[in-house]
Amino acid sequence: AQKITQTQPGMFVQEKEAVTLDCTYDTSDPSYGLFWYKQPSSGEMIFLIYQGSYDQQNATEGRYSLNFQKARKSANLVISASQLGDSAMYFCAMREVYSSASKIIFGSGTRLSIRP
Amino acid sequence: ETGVTQTPRHLVMGMTNKKSLKCEQHLGHNAMYWYKQSAKKPLELMFVYNFKEQTENNSVPSRFSPECPNSSHLFLHLHTLQPEDSALYLCASSQKTGSGETQYFGPGTRLLVL
Q: Among A8, A76, B35, B51, which has the minimal tally of Cβ within 10 Å of its Cβ?
């Protein structure tokens, strides 16, 4: 069963607008971590933001924020004031603490394109 | 050098060749990983090393042979590959801390097998 689902294969957004990238996950582990990574066309996976399952507040890092809705098992990434350099693939990922502690499961990704 | 570096960045090889991919992390981490990213597929974990010991082999064919001489260096030795092995190979490292443990990735090696 797929554990990380990203339902938007591609999105187009006008520059300076905010954008929300969807991510839902499935786990029975009470302790887990959620991550978002950005992958530009150069290939490198760039860590953006982390949310722990017990964190009371939504994570924020600069223009990135994570809209964590635990009951819905969703962890959407919000990018405020989008820029041309935000055009890339975005991957949602999860680590379950009680499974293999090293294993991060990645979603299939969303390709974000920012229009000038 | 900072972060995680990988060489070469691009590699073209024939099916009978032997080549090696190199990864080096400058972050003081104690775990290193190899991932394969094929077109239109999610990232696939291949191998995990903790403190130089291999702790995970995700059913990877034996034509891929990893080596971790120390906690800063990781190699992936390639021999008699198939065209379907063409992909982006990403190395990552992390510091073992629990659920918040974040993996940091290198720029990847784009491999083409002819």
A: B51
